[in-house]
Automatic annotation (TrEMBL):
It comes from the Eukaryota. This is FAM91 N-terminal domain-containing protein. Transmembrane segments: none annotated. Pfam families: FAM91_C (PF14648), FAM91_N (PF14647). Residues 17-307 form the FAM91 N-terminal domain. InterPro entries: FAM91, FAM91_C_dom, FAM91_N_dom. Residues 361-440, 471-693 form the FAM91 C-terminal domain. Belongs to the FAM91 family.
Amino acid sequence: MLQLQSTIEEQLILRAIKEECGWESLPKRLQASLNSKDEWHRRIIAHCIKRRLLWRTSFVRKVCREGEYYEDMMRYLRKNLALFPYHLAEYVCRSMRITPFRYYCDMLFEVMKNEQSYDRIPNFSAADALRLTGIGRNEFIDIMNKCRSKKIMWKLNKSIARELLPTQSVDITIEPWWGVCLVNFTLEEFKKLSEEESATIDKICREEVNAFMLFDPVVIKGLHRRGLVYLDVCVYAEDRFKVCRLEGFVSNREQSYEDPIEELLYAVFVVSSENSTVAELATTLQVQLSQLQAAASFACRLGWAVKLIDPGSILQEPNSPTKNAISDDDEASRTSVGSLNMSVDAAVFDQDSTDNSGYTHVAFVVDANITSYLMMGSVSPGLKSHAVTLYEAGKLGHASIRDLCNDLSSLEGAKFEGVLQEFANHAFSLRSILECLTSGGITSNNEEIVSMTAGHAVVHESDDSEDTNDADKVSNKKIRKYNVDILRCESLATLAATTLDRLFRRNYEIVVSMLPHPHSSVLPGPKVPVHFGPPSYSSLTPWMKLVLYSAARSGPLSVVLMKGQCLRLLPAPLSGCEKALVWSWDESSVNKFDQRLVKGNILLHCLNSLLKHTAILVQPLSKYDLDNHGNFSTMDVPLPLKNSDGSVPDIGKELGLDMKESSKLKFLLENLGTRIELWTVGYIRLLKLFKESDPNSFAPDEYEWVPLSIEFGIPLSSPDLCYSICERIVSSQLLQANLFTDHQNSMQELRAMLQKVCSEYQATGSTARMFYQRDQPKAEQTKSQNKLLMTYASQRWNPLTDPSSPISGMSDHQRLKLANRQRCGSEVLSFDGNILRSYALSPIYETVMAL
């Protein structure tokens, strides 16, 4: 209650500061909690300092003087090792004469003096300090080792570390459009200026436009190194930016994102788009324009963002209306980042500023494991830079995809062992799918597609007859061009749901997910035009298997057990199995893609252990379903299932199966294709089972393939399967033909099937309530019992279903509770290979756990 009250008071205080309420205007409740007017003023100052607000446009101007406010702010920033406040440079650099170089030198000295770890410095502060001082992790450790080598002198005099710090800033990159501003000179400094420096300063004072490109770069850099000028990176609401690779980024372990710009930068990296202005990005992120301008300005300083300059702006006058398009409400944000206009020439035009409206934008969503695999690629130094950018920024733009593919191609022919082989598999798969997506899923009759497997490259030459026809069909139509961005799902998960929805709708037409799906999977909303991935979150659970078996009228024998059950004996479908596959609704209990193949002699113990935490689906396997090594056989069929002409390919022939098995497999896939439209990417996993046609006769060759599961997305762990999916994308012309409507319709039908099953057979569904047999007339119970034999069981049953007789060992309260309840047996769901049925367990199989 005290915590809730404190939260309410804090909200009231923030609201009062926002409304600029004076002490006399505060509610009596707040005055009582703050005790005095001075405490109220301290709260205002602390709030404005934490928000890095400009003195003349914030409430703090009514509380303290400008000099006192900025001095308190700089002390606070140094204490917290925060970023230099570039957006406040007009006072901090001009009046206080604090340069970013000196600020970061003082910060490094404080960390060294306290003998703290380099990891204490936040990521962006460390990166900016490295840019200006040249001191990174290795240099920091080297200086500390030199200090500690002096032993007693270091303990008595900590200033030794300052003597080892640089005295001048390193040569930094200055973009031509950056502004040059003067500081408040002293008379002694003015007398020491050379003639060229004096002439440059006079020109800065006279000119309305002060872009760096208009001055002698040697003179400006000399003045900047001495702290006589500072650089103003102007960002306007109509500007557009492109996020580049995070060269020079520093990844420290200990992070506390106290600075609002730091936290905002991570979101900007993910949401940014070349087609969106700064004002549009602020709307997408639901943040103030001034904050986003400050974040974009900082990213440009470090070279992580490039401003896209409109070629038409060169013809505009410096004071043209387009340059002053920001409203009066945004005046504070303009002055916080810079108020001087600029002029540019054609030499600074960016090639990427051209119109990209002819491209279809694709988002390929991966998890953090990809970045760790790329970091392992010591073969190519460029992979590490791509991995750092993807991990820290959460996005790798389409401009970097070609370089990434080139770096991945350098691994071709290399041999790997152990853990590095897993890295190679992901690298080969990533290159295959990126090249497929960027090419628009097109190949010609004279083109070779290289499938890179473990340690070598296998060249698949395209078939002349089939691919020539496909190429002719595509050539008669307008070829779609694609730009692919790689997004990290963990970064997407940090965004608000509304922000994520606006991101997908504004920036992308197609979203592609990877396999396996991580626990932090973020699925686009229904408003996204095309998503080649899971249609809904329920499709990531065993519900999808039950829908697949029911729709295909085929599948392995399956039993669903409710969470909370405790079995004393295995029921009939499970009692005689050799081994069993166990799947869980809770992925933390049983990993979905590392399915647990449990031996039959320990199956009872395994089920009882898992049922305490989650409902499970069990698929028993006989000894005839296993090979000599005790493993089951599977086959992965890539999606899309159909070719562009609607035919189903002969998968068995491609896999080298005999004619009989190939025909059976093709019949199964054709039957499946007629029942479920699957115009998407992924694969169907088939399971090879012994067909028990006659229990008195045994024919070892009588086996059949049945669907085991269906997965939506791109599997990066298997290069061969990934390449097969890319081939199916080409054969089906999925990215070129007008199949997106078919994809939407098929996914909508699948979502409807999942929703129907889940809503009807979950614990609160209509069928589930009938299982409990509660509040039903006796005349209706007979009808419902007949219906139960043909229906699913609930995902969650009541763990205290009544046995046929009272259980010994229970308390009197539990006996009375059980006696007053209507008795019914526990229902278990079973799939016998043809239809899903439910039946009641005898009390001998189940024990009821006392609560």
